[in-house]
């Protein structure tokens, strides 16, 4: 029997999701705890240490934890040691969270952007090759973006490559949460969709928005905005594969055919327009945890 495991963690603004591998490398002991409740006092490292100690006591008493991998909804330093900026969780900015957790738990801890953890899982699930360029565009509350080159995430000089949600839109004047004006996230994100729903469709349930109104000009323009944002990256990188995911893309009735039609319109002709390889991620609650586990195992195999 294999008495070793790795733990994957997906930290979000609402929930912290945790799971580990069993002797067959399958995800087991998946749990969710409230982010707001956990971090309410602002002591991030101490609070997360307590959550992990409880998890270890419950599930890992007779198991050696080889590594803990954590997906963070944040920008991270290029060496992935320091959290630079987190928009939705106060008290995380500037933390060397991995180092502090290692000292508290005595277990190696690694960090990565949460969107890259999602892509690690999708790459595995879709059986995508490590060779070449793969991108993931995840439209949730904001615009998440993963860029993988030969199987590894692109970090950039400062660690903040792939901020697709903060590409400036020509003529854009809307205020973004990052402080800039006219970021693409202001026009092609979940929070923008909520604004459109409240302004134009106040009597329509959010879950039925695309089912009932996908042919309306307002929503067609919104989907076109997503295509424009994605094609900014597609036309620069000419990727081998493209994955779309996130809560908005997985909404009931979301017009994927129209999205692909607009992607073709905005992509450079003849290529990459003629060679777009598009797949869709299934929006499951444990995707980030499973991706974190794959990331941890990848590091351990080096």
UniProtKB/TrEMBL annotation:
InterPro entries: ATPase_NBD, ROK, ROK_cs. Its EC number is 2.7.1.55. PROSITE patterns: ROK. Pfam families: ROK. GO terms for molecular function: D-allose kinase activity. Keywords: Kinase, Transferase. It is an enzyme of class 2 (transferase). The keyword Cytoplasm does not apply. Coiled coil: none annotated. Belongs to the ROK (NagC/XylR) family. NCBIfam families: PRK09698.1 (NF007251). This is Allose kinase.
